[in-house]
Fold this protein.
Amino acid sequence: MSSHLGRYEQVGEVLGRHGLGFLADITGVGRWFGHPRAAGRDRATTPERVRLALEDLGPTFIKLGQLLSTRSDLLPPPYLTELAKLQDAAPVVPPEAILEAIRAELGADVEELFADFDVHPIASASIGQAHAAHLEDGTPVVVKVRRPGIVPKVEEDLEIVQNLARQASRRWERARGYDLEGIAQDFAISLRAELDYVQEGRNAERFAANFSADPQVLIPRIIWERTTSRVLTLERMTGVKVNDLARLDAGGIDRKGVARRGAEMILKMIFQDGFFHADPHPGNLFVTPDGSIALIDFGMVGELNEELKQELTDFLIGFTQASPSLLASALYALCVRKELQDRPRLERSLAGWVSQYAGRPLSEVNFTHLISQLLAMLREHHLQLPRHMALLFKVLIMVEGMGVQLDHDFALGEVLTPYARRLVEDRISITATAQRLLRASSDAAELFIDSPGRLRRIVENLDTSGFQIHVRAAEVEPLVGRAERIGNRLVAGMIAAALINGIGDLVAAQRKGRPWVTVLITAGLSTIGSLVGYLLWTGRRRD
């Protein structure tokens, strides 16, 4: 803390100025707590004072507030609404500083690098600013230049944010239900990625590859010979902003088609590619005269890996079956923070939630309302989503809002249905089932392989010096729970082995010309026998 003492003092002073003594106390900066401002403090709500404090603390804290504005699973609506007002604007960097940064990074003056370069920025943000230019061949480009000196300031603030989260986790009882340190760490990773323009360029190329077969989705080309971690040069996208309805209508552009095309673009990113643009606000989407959609700004992205995809699919299955039990299990698997105290209460909440949508097609569901209710439920039960899943829900809400703005009859569920159906079909396919069984058998094999070594070390300890056991009653329950989990893994491994053996027999039967029905029955009996053995074993354990 001592190495950043001056900045900690600023944080405490700003929190004090805005009457946020509680935050100062739980984050450990109360000793530098400033005097509240009399003017306006009594009239401002607490969420408003939090926003004003973040604005005063500068770019890193503004970015933190913007991130938290997407976390409906963590914060109640008044805070989300207020933090969403945070603007990532910043004073313009003097032209001399921009030209010097380009010279230092690219090794030449702008006159040698570009046919022309406008020193007046198109946009100026906290991390960098963008300038219009042309390459020597006449290609219009945008040159993004990272703000000079921003990296050391951001790194200092990121260290402070992570330390404040650590302090709050220890000092504040309610914080123990949330992974504040994990949120701070995820924020640091995300912001560092935004600082690296090479990473943004790679993100753009990945999107371009994913949409290479779709001529109506336009991704700017990266000019790598004019790009470094501090300077990004990319093809300039032109068109009408997606929310400029008057210009879209004046250009004769089919708004219904744009709404559906935009939704399909984002849903493909999420559910098919597993790599999605995490900030598709209207300023990042342009519509060309033929109705194509151009996308820009690839600093913030989300990923849906296979594990998250499977857990999300399990949740969709529980939703379509209107099963509170399946939904509760899926949510528990999906969340990273699992301080679930009362599962029956969670199931009752889920039953009330899902009953509103039971029997209704997805095309009739208001997803903004559905997701908002779900996230409020997670917050109530202290269940915290992983960052990429929180981004996914935020993006779905943004897509539905954009679609309805373009077309009052737009139904996100209608576009989403085939993707959801494909997820469920993939989840229950033979190939996916076999892969899960192989993973289960791998876990069991690892346990068997590791056990002899552990037992040998125990015996060696006994032979040399023996040991004494001191056990407190409070320690017994976790040990018993672990033993039960190991037993479950052993039995799961045996069941998996029986299933895999049955699948192998099926394949062999087809190759040898044996009747596959006979082999299927044999494999089924083997699996049933394993399951019966498991039930008998669990019954004896309960006795």
About this structure: The two ends are 56 Å apart (CA to CA). The chain has a mean pLDDT of 81. The longest helix spans residues 473-512. The chain is about 60% helix and 10% strand.
